[in-house]
Amino acid sequence: MRPYSKTRIMQAFDKSAPSYDEYAIFQNEVSDELLNEVKGLNLSGAVVMEFGCGAGTLSSRLAGLGHFKAALAFDIAKGMARMTRLRRNGSDNLFVVQADIENAPVKKGCVDLAVSNLVFQWIEDYESAFREIALSLKPGGRLLATTLGEGTFRELRETVEAVFAADGKHVDRSIFHKFTDARLLKEAARKAGLDIHTRRRTIVKTYKDIYQFLKSLKKIGVQNSEGLSALGLGRRGILEKISNEYNKTHFTEEGIAVTYEVILIDAASPQTG
């Protein structure tokens, strides 16, 4: 697996910021579920931090709940941070900074709750990220986050492998995006001093065809992910073969099926420092 390039990730999400809300339908559905988890905590007068805030859908709603005296929102992409600022709507408790989790300007032990929606699959060093989060949390502070597990986009991987096999070629699986390994995630969190629990569930979405699916990924900033770009899926010939194979094996009455494996992370720092 190639190491992730923060620069490429930042550029891709920066470019996609204006179109993100229109195409991030699945991402916003998961964000809604995460928001409901937060509401269940019954926090009051607390400080919440979201890293990888994207276009600000979750951060702005957290700030508007009335539970938090401050909502801190960070994103590595300048365009995403700008979109989040536009969602303030006069709110005086939402603070937005362009930064990633490794350089977020947060004082040690000042955050009651850290949240993150579908970001960990872009993080290469889980332990480093968890350590930064742990440092920011107050004793007993919580982390609620979602990420995408290894079952995500399984149909696409199977289809690409079948197409290449039909041509007598082998696909090196390392060119696909490496989604989150829940076991490694737990190990990293515990090494960082966090008590962690995870839940997993599978969501199957449908798209008209593979062209619509890939366009939706591109419009939310995934065009530079290690798997899709490395395969050269922009080449018309191979994309047509992949489309035909996908339709043969994963087509439903509603369109092509796309699997997302969603992992909910619920972690906490020790009650005493």
Summarize the structure.
With 273 residues, the protein is of the alpha/beta class. The protein has a single domain, classed as 3-Layer(aba) Sandwich (Rossmann fold), CATH 3.40.50.150.
Question: What topology emerges from the helices and strands here?
Answer:
Layout (H helix, E strand, L loop, with lengths): L5 H11 L3 H4 L1 H15 L6 E6 L5 H8 L3 E8 L2 H9 L7 E5 L12 E7 L8 H11 E12 L5 H13 L15 H10 L3 E13 L2 H10 L6 H6 L4 H15 E2 L2 E14 L5
Parallel strand pairs: 1-2, 1-4, 2-3, 4-5
Antiparallel strand pairs: 5-8, 6-8, 7-8
Question: Would you mind describing this structure in some detail?
Answer:
Keywords: Methyltransferase, Transferase. The protein has eleven helices and eight strands. With 273 residues, the protein is an alpha/beta fold. α6 links the parallel β4 (111-117) and β5 (137-148). The longest helix has 15 residues, at 25-39.
Largest sheet: 8 strands, mixed
Residue-averaged pLDDT, rounded?
A: 91
Q: Which band does the percent of strand residues land in?
A: 15-25%
Q: H/E series, N to C?
A: HHHEHEHEEHEHHEHHHEE
